[in-house]
Structures are given as structure tokens and as C-alpha cells.
């Protein structure tokens, strides 16, 4: 038989496929083990990840301060600077909401009346009356009353989650303090624990991984701030109420690839529709969509450069897989983790010379009936 091994009679393609299959099974088992171990210490993993994020964002600030002061003092001042920026942003958002809440409530009520009138007397092929809306509201109130006990139980259960969140943040800040103050010494100590023969690969992998992770983290922060600023300018020019909180929502959405920006756009359009009408809502949607295009085609190549070079299909698959695995948290951390893995893989692999697109497609001709082999044209 053509292509068969002379010793056991098993076709070569079957032995090759079997070898690839068991290697893939071992690889999948290892990945599954990593995910299982991570899920058992999810709080610890999240805390360390946030600590790395804080380190990547604040390290340039700490390096700047350390030029004129001791490293511990520069670390404390860098963390304080980051906290003040975050607290100032939260205070400004809260002040904007409190200052415009009364006007927004009135405009929102007028907008709801306009929407109801459109649904009842508009050109749609169906109509929804006030009586139907009132019936739906009554049904919703009845459902809440019937399930009040279950909802209270869920709220009580979520109290533990709030404690876990604050615990993770405290641990993340604690780790970030040491990463910023003595990160180089900690990495050197770790490398020194390894055998001399494997130190160079670990140094290469660590350097490539941190370069990509820090580049992605700082880049996404710059992009998010820019998106939020542009959204604030757009919403202020159009006259949409609560422009500052909506701009912060756009800023937060930038941290979730593919999902965050559309979600923020829909919320901003709803507020604009309720307050200013359908025309302004359409302008808001178009403007934020243009901001997204500006981000994807100008900001990301300019800010991140070659530090993060993932195909959009890979980003979509990573975000989807992260969301299915760990919800919103998985969607946020999926892309940087995949970027780090790809950077390390690219650093070690030695690819063969690339083919041209026309060379990658094999034009298979008719099969020769005598020997069963395909002839190529």
C-alpha cells in the first residue's frame, strides 16, 4: 500500500494524525488544568492581574518621580497621584449628575411621553396604547412583589461579592506597591532561583511578555481617555444632558474590546433620544461610531504600534471566549493575556520563509486512477 509503514502496515497519514492528536489532547489537558487552578483562586488571580495593571500604568510616573526623590517616596507619590486622578473623575461625574438631575428628570419624562405618542399614533404597522404600557408596569410590579424574597436573597448573597471586590483591590494595591518599588529586584530573585541553563529563555519570555502587557495597558488607558474626551466634546456640542457621566461610560467601555463601545453608544443614544429627540440621538450614535473608527484606524496603530498585533478575528474570539469563561472580567483580561502569549511565542519561534497568497493555495488536479495520487496543474 502506498504511504504505508513497512513494519506495522499502518498508513503513514494515520500514524501522523494520531501523533498530532495525542499531543493536542495533552496540550488541551494542560490548558484546562490552568483554567481550573485559576478558577479555584480567582480572587488571587484578579488581584495580581490588577496589581500588574496598576504597575504598568503608574510605572512611568514613578520613574519620573524617582529622578528627584528616593524610590519608596516616588512609589507612594505615584500611587497617590493615580488615586487623586481617579477620585477627581468620580467627584466630577457625581457633581454633574447632582447638578443636572432635576432638569434631566423633566426632559426624560417629556421624552418618554414623545416615545409613547410615537408608538401609539406613529407610522409603525402596530400601535401600543397607554393602557397596554400601564398593564405591563402593573405586571412588572406584581412580579417584583412575588419574587421579593428571592431578590432579597440575591442582594444578601452579593454582599459577599462586595467584600471580595474590596479584598481584591486591597491586595492589588499591596502587590502594586512592591512591584513599583522593588519589581526589578523581585524578578532578579526569581530568575536566580532557576538553573543557569534555563535563565536566558525565562528572561527573554519575561521581557517580551512585560513589554507587550505594559504597552497594551498604557495604550488602552490613553485610548480610553481620548475616547472619553472626544465623547464629552461631542455630547456637549449637541447639548445632551449628563455629558460628563456618559463620556466616562464611553471611557470605561473602551477597556472592553468590541463590546464596551457599542454598549456605551446605545446608552448615550437613549439619553439623547429621551432628552433631545430622535435627530440628536442619531447624531450621537453617528458621532460615537466615528470616534470608534478614529480609535481603530488612528489611535491604536499610533499608540500601541507593534506592541500588540492581533488580528480582529483573534480579538473577537478572545473576547467571546473570555466572556463565556468569566463574564465581563474575562472579556477585559482576554485580549492582554492572548497578546502576552502571542508575544512570547513569536519571540521563540523561528518561522520558515513566508509564501505568497497564490502559493498558499494548491491547485489539485484530477486523480490518477492507476496509483491513486493527485496530479497538480
Folded structure, characterized:
The chain has helices spanning 12-40, 42-65, 71-121, 130-146, 148-192, 196-238, 243-253, 260-276, 278-303, 312-348; strands at 364-367, 374-376. The chain is mainly α and 377 residues long. Helix 6 (196-238) runs antiparallel to helix 10. The chain is globular and about 75 Å long.
Provide the descriptors you would attach to this structure in a database record.
377 residues, mainly alpha, two-stranded antiparallel ribbon, 10 helices, disordered N terminus
Layout of secondary structure:
Layout: H1 12-40, H2 42-65, H3 71-121, H4 130-146, H5 148-192, H6 196-238, H7 243-253, H8 260-276, H9 278-303, H10 312-348, E1 364-367, E2 374-376
Antiparallel strand pairs: 1-2
